[in-house]
Design a protein that fits this description.
Elements lengths: L6 H11 L5 H7 L13 H8 L15 H4 L3 H4 L18 H5 L11 H4 L2 E2 L4 E3 L4 E3 L5 E3 L3 E8 L5 E8 L3 H16 L1 H11 L7 E7 L3 E10 L7 E12 L2 E10 L12 H9 L1
Antiparallel strand pairs: 1-5, 2-5, 3-4, 5-6, 6-10, 7-8, 8-9, 9-10
Helix pairs in contact: 1-2, 1-3
């Protein structure tokens, strides 16, 4: 991706490559402005590290790093879910197991204030060797992947990713990798902020946990790339259900609306994801 294009074009291309990335479609439907517009974009780093590409209008097939290379077409382009054999989930956790973990817009946190709506039908694809949830968490070894994107009344995103594994032990190992990544997420986020000349204001705390289920809140002035830029709160949930790892993520951008979600409700969110 050339660095001579406008900063907004770079931002769209980078976001389209991040797997967290109903944000791609969000930026496509709203003119999101923020104080970090002049920030030096980490597009070069994203391209080098994650092989980020601009969004395609047609599916191009699975890539080595699914979350960091392209969003599934159902989220980015509002197309029907991929149905070719190569795109179907494999392993012990097939499409039926992935579908059983799906949440609806009514089950998302803060639904009264956010008024969540599905962005498109869920997309089921074959994952690559790595899945990047955010700047702190990379999951390896998944054999199936289903993603569902949502959009709020404030044009902010929520994304559910269900990752299938060959067996429960593999899913448990992936869940522990999420725990490890989020344990160090404050330090990771602050190091990234310093790299791009921002105040190191990131704060990460675990807000709920029970069995193999945990929730976190990250507040920070984000670096554009895997996250939208600017002051925000990220809410992250991880649950292991048998051989499936369920990941849910939603953002509150200060430039879009005042933060309305109280993380005290995260225990109930986790309870809903484990059922």
């Amino acid at each position: 991706m050339a660095l001579t294009v406008s900063s907004r074009s770079v931002r769209l291309a980078v976001l389209a490559g991040a797997g967290v990335l109903a944000a791609t479609a969000v930026y496509a439907v709203t003119d999101h402005a923020d104080a970090s517009e002049g920030q030096a974009p980490p597009a070069a780093a994203a391209t080098a590290d994650h092989r980020t590409t601009a969004p395609a209008t047609t599916p191009t097939g699975p890539t080595a790093t699914p979350s960091a290379t392209q969003a599934p077409p159902a989220v980015a382009d509002k197309a029907a879910p991929a149905t070719t054999p190569a795109a179907r989930a494999t392993g012990a956790a097939g499409e039926k197991a992935l579908a059983a973990t799906r949440v609806t817009a009514r089950q998302l946190p803060d639904r009264t204030a956010q008024k969540w709506k599905e962005l498109a039908p869920p997309s089921t694809r074959q994952p690559g060797p790595e899945f990047q949830l955010n700047e702190c968490v990379t999951v390896r070894g998944a054999t199936g992947w289903q993603q569902q994107g949502f959009i709020s009344a404030h044009k902010t995103p929520a994304v559910q990713d269900s990752l299938g594994f060959p067996d429960a032990a593999s899913a448990r190992a992936a869940y522990r990798a999420v725990l490890a990544g989020m344990k160090d997420c404050e330090a990771t986020s602050r190091a990234l902020q310093k790299r791009y000349g921002l105040a190191a204001d990131a704060r990460v705390r675990q807000t709920a946990g029970a069995g193999e289920a945990a929730a976190w809140s990250r507040t920070w002035t984000a670096v554009q790339g895997l996250s939208a830029p600017g002051a925000q709160a990220n809410h992250i949930y991880a649950v292991r259900r048998g051989s499936v790892l369920v990941l849910l993520h939603f953002d509150e951008w200060d430039s879009a609306a005042p933060r309305s979600y109280d993380p005290k409700g995260d225990a109930d969110v986790l309870a809903g994801l484990t059922r």
